[in-house]
């Protein structure tokens, strides 16, 4: 096995980042696309169809909206998965700012 860097510490950090990316991919697939074939896709197919998705992000009125182009083959499934991930987060996590009355941003995914 070859590592990209010469130093031990740099390779250790690189290995941790690669492991974190794998965990992110596995958990997002299990949580967002439970019961769908996307969950079992290989990393290359995920990268080609989901991670490079044509979309725009807009922030307005304390909300962040992700507009996914509806010409994409998996648009409805991906929007449903993003909304499922959004619904998993607590409605209002306790932080000093939220205790003082500031509203956290909501992330919303829409087709269009």
Quick one: biggest sheet? 3 strands, mixed
**Strand tally, please?**
3
Q: Helix proportion of residues, in percent?
A: 40-55%
The class by helix and strand makeup works out as alpha+beta
Strand and helix order: HHEEHHE
Could you explain how this protein is built, in words?
The protein is an alpha+beta fold and 112 residues long. It has one domain (8-111). The protein is built from 4 helices and 3 strands. Strands 1-2-3 form a 3-stranded mixed β-sheet. It is globular, with a radius of gyration of 18 Å.
Please supply descriptive tags for the structure shown above.
112 residues; 3 strands; 16% strand; three-stranded mixed beta sheet; alpha+beta
In short:
With 112 residues, this protein is α+β, with helices and mostly antiparallel strands.
Task: Present the secondary structure layout.
Elements: H1 8-32, H2 43-51, E1 55-60, E2 63-68, H3 75-88, H4 96-100, E3 106-111
Parallel strand pairs: 2-3
Antiparallel strand pairs: 1-2
